[in-house]
Automatic annotation (TrEMBL):
Residues 19-36 have a biased composition (Polar residues). Residues 116-193 form the Cytochrome b5 heme-binding domain. Residues 1-36 are annotated as: Disordered. Residues 1-18 have a biased composition (Basic and acidic residues). Gene3D superfamilies: Cytochrome b5-like heme/steroid binding domain. Keywords: Heme, Iron, Metal-binding. GO terms for cellular component: cytoplasm. Coiled coil: none annotated. PANTHER family: CYTOCHROME B5 REDUCTASE 4, CYTOCHROME B5 REDUCTASE 4 FAMILY MEMBER. This is Cytochrome b5 heme-binding domain-containing protein. The keyword Cell inner membrane does not apply. It comes from Zygosaccharomyces rouxii.
Length: 194
């Protein structure tokens, strides 16, 4: 990755050192004083600095939990589902089971559909805008549009590395400990087929 706005977790792994069982990081990056307040933080253990952004009011992790367990559970949090029955329909007919398409037409939330929607590279690539942003993590396809403003790492990095792409490698590089499958449960679109 060559974008200087986003520091990689590994970029100063060599520079960090352990003194008296506490993590110490170079002064230039030590503004969080991790030895006092953040020593248990997994991000610091993974690389030693934060790339977090300030989230808008009403976009904390608790707010996300509230959204996913209310509106999300009821309707799912995938945007532009209508498009699947219009623009994408011909493509879906050749790659999916009829039962899947019937459930979509009956407005069953995508995260509940069985067998799940099969998404190939072409379909993934078509959903690559901010309003309709799909990405793959570990073989599962998620719609990130509703999650953008809740992401502690910011919107830009998601748009750049996730939109219409397989983001597994980048996800694991930044925070493989994050329970994406739980966080994005109701944003589930389908399974990735290569
Ligand atoms: C697509 C699903 C993703 C989810 C659900 C997700 C979730 C999260 C969560 C929960 C955190 C907070 C971690 C903490 O408190 O230590 C976080 C931080 C962050 N994420 Fe993601 N993330 C996703 C994808 C990505 C991707 C693909 C990238 C990079 C290309 C990325 C970059 C970051 C960065 C830079 C931070 C801030 C890390 C820090 O400095 O503490 N995220 N993300």
């Amino acid at each position: 990755m060559d974008d200087s706005r986003f520091k990689r977790p590994s970029s100063f792994r060599e520079e960090r050192s352990l003194k008296n069982n506490t993590l110490s990081v170079p002064n230039s990056n030590n503004w969080l004083n991790p030895s006092k307040s953040q020593a248990g933080c997994s991000t610091l253990r993974a690389g030693g600095y934060r790339n977090k952004v300030a989230l808008k009011p009403g976009h904390s992790s608790l707010d996300w939990h509230e959204l996913t367990t209310t509106k999300g559970k009821k309707f799912g949090l995938v945007t532009n589902v209508d498009r699947l029955l219009t623009l994408d329909l011909d493509h879906l007919k050749s790659t999916n089971y009829p039962q899947t398409l019937v459930q979509i037409s009956r407005k069953v939330p995508l995260y509940l559909i069985r067998p799940p929607l099969r998404v190939d590279k072409e379909l993934l690539r078509r959903h690559n805008t901010k309003d309709d942003c799909w990405c793959v993590i570990q073989g599962k396809v998620y719609c990130l549009t509703n999650y953008f403003d809740f992401h502690p790492g910011g919107v830009d990095i998601l748009l750049r590395y996730c939109a219409g792409k397989d983001a597994t490698k980048m996800f694991n590089e930044y925070h493989r400990w994050v329970s994406y499958d739980k966080l994005l449960e109701t944003c589930f679109v389908g399974v990735y087929v290569e």
